[in-house]
Design goal:
Length: about 200
């Protein structure tokens, strides 16, 4: 299988500012765990001959400890506008069966919570926002950087992108029974593929 996708994501989790998961630190959620939702909007993408452009999905996570310790719980909410073929292709990618960064993730999965279908939306801009299943809705707010800029993390051990903006994204989520109140947020453009640059940072879920 050969696949690729590019687009933008916005994520939130219950870790206190700043989330230590990208540097493989111990989660700082109120229960000592990291629970989060990351919504991805695919601008362009495909798996073999299946076009994935325009599809949005949510990657829901529970990390019981630092990321490299494994034991993750992962569930996916796929926008109900995706066709059956697109849904099958994305599940194959996200479950790690099609290679690439999600295959690296799959080695750390403790429990695959499956795939649900519901409305998933993403709104771009300086303050990107996302909504999942009509139950979870959040907006990203950047932490201020120098000279009125934004704060970023670059070349982290775990990252959905080589560099991403960090900030706040407050929300309550109960997707897949992973109840949490979001505090931390991050956002960036992403590029994933079945064959990635060996020197690129590992993706963060």
């Amino acid at each position: 299988m050969s696949w690729e996708m590019t687009g933008k994501y916005v994520a939130n989790c219950n870790c206190q500012l700043i989330c230590p998961c990208p540097v493989d630190g111990t989660p700082t959620g109120s229960d000592g765990e990291c629970r989060g939702v990351a919504v991805f909007q695919i601008a362009s993408g495909k798996l073999d001959d299946t076009d994935l452009s325009g599809i949005a999905f949510a990657f829901c996570n529970w990390f019981p400890s630092n990321l490299s310790a494994g034991g993750w719980k992962v569930g996916i909410v796929l926008d109900d506008g995706a066709s059956a073929a697109q849904a099958t292709a994305l599940e194959s990618i996200l479950h790690g069966e099609a290679g690439g960064p999600f295959a690296d993730f799959a080695a750390l999965y403790g429990e695959w919570l499956g795939v649900e279908r519901a409305s998933v939306t993403f709104s771009d801009g300086d303050t990107p926002s996302a909504s999942v299943a009509g139950r979870v809705s959040y907006t990203f707010e950047s932490l201020p950087g120098p000279d009125g800029g934004v704060t970023t993390v670059k070349n982290a051990m775990f990252g959905f992108a080589p560099e991403f903006r960090i900030g706040k994204a407050q929300v309550h989520s109960d997707l897949f029974g992973l109840d949490f109140d979001g505090v931390y947020g991050e956002t960036a453009d992403f590029t994933f593929a079945s064959a990635m640059d060996e020197n690129a940072p590992k993706g963060r879920a």
